[in-house]
Design a protein that fits this description.
312 residues, alpha/beta, Rossmann fold, 5-stranded parallel beta sheet, 4-stranded parallel beta sheet, globular, binds phosphoric acid mono(formamide)ester
Length: 312
């Protein structure tokens, strides 16, 4: 596999900076990395001598572990900054923290932070490539890449597919990155959720269709993604009750009948079973939810390989 120089040293703040051809190149590289992950011996020596740092200021299971596994599989050195046990608690600023970590000789950063724009700040302070692992409600581009890969691997194309994304659009960074990426790849995206969780500008800014009725939104969908209902925001009074939300927006056997018979089911996780999705759908044969997690390792290996200039 060739490593095009277009990728070396690049940041991944969100998918708006990456062309459709570049996204396709990531999907192709992910396929190769997935094959590596299916071997008995899964390790490649291609990033030996490079050092990757994960800077996580918010909780994560999938994104953190899969980035760390990806670095390990490619033989990069990995250093983890854990906000909870760091000198942030002694009053050190983000800027000084990043200067301090960078003085140890880091080649690439992966950051998750509640502040939109924090990946850009880390790049400004270090000059090193930065991958956004989720910045507040703004963007989560590696999640979108693994979601797109999971669909593309099954269908062979994203062009012309109807993808319906359902749930708490207002607070979701996953939906924003998916809208950018899927549109670039030629998919038609419909988003659906309660009006109180749907910003008024979505159609205009992202070129997607907006529906408030789940059955209409699901009609003839090729792939359906549930979004996590952010239960911590329930006290904001954005919907009357969880029961009300569930009655109108849950992905269930009954509502999924409106999508195509073999429609793929996705969810970025973590899931609230019984709220945005019922177990019978989440665990069904057409659910890609655990496959998405598997693919998350491969897509992050592909990104590290391409950006750090690894050779196969
Ligand atoms: N999908 C996702 O970002 O999951 P984590 O919060 O577990 O990383």
């Amino acid at each position: 596999m060739e490593n095009s120089h277009n990728f070396i040293g690049r940041n991944l703040f969100d998918l708006d900076d990456w062309s459709a051809d570049e996204i396709q190149a990531v999907l192709d590289a992910t396929k190769v990395m997935k094959e590596v992950n299916q071997r008995d011996y899964k390790k490649l020596p291609i990033l030996r001598g490079k050092t990757v740092c994960t800077l996580f200021f918010e909780n994560s299971t999938r994104t953190l572990m899969s980035f760390e596994l990806a670095a390990d599989r490619l033989s990069a050195d990995l250093v983890r900054f854990s906000a909870n046990v760091s000198s942030l608690h002694k009053g050190e600023s983000l800027q000084d923290t990043v200067y301090t970590v960078d003085a140890m000789g880091i080649d690439l950063y992966i950051i998750r932070h509640s502040y939109p724009g924090s990946p850009q700040l880390v790049h400004k302070y270090t000059g090193k490539p930065v991958l956004n692992a989720g910045d507040g409600p703004h963007a989560h581009p590696t999640q979108a890449l693994l979601d797109m890969f999971s669909i593309w691997e099954r269908t062979g194309t994203l062009k012309g597919l109807k993808v319906t994304i359902v749930g708490d659009v207002a607070h979701s960074r996953v939906v924003r990155s998916n809208l950018i990426g899927l549109k670039k790849m030629g998919a038609n995206v419909t988003i659906c959720g309660p009006k109180t969780l749907m910003p008024g500008y979505m159609q205009e800014v992202y070129g997607c269709k907006v529906e408030y009725d789940l059955k209409t939104a699901l009609k003839n969908a090729d792939a359906v993604m549930g979004l996590r209902m952010q239960l911590e925001r329930q006290s904001d009074g954005l919907f009357p009750s969880l029961e009300e939300y569930t009655k109108l927006f849950t992905l269930s056997e009954e509502t999924m009948r409106y999508a195509k018979k073999d429609a793929l089911i996705l969810h970025p996780g973590p899931m609230n079973r019984g709220v945005e999705i019922l177990p019978g759908i989440a665990d069904s044969d057409r659910s890609l939810i655990l496959e998405q997690v598997t693919n998350g390792v491969a897509v992050r290996m592909a990104l590290l390989f391409l950006i750090l200039g690894g050779k196969l």
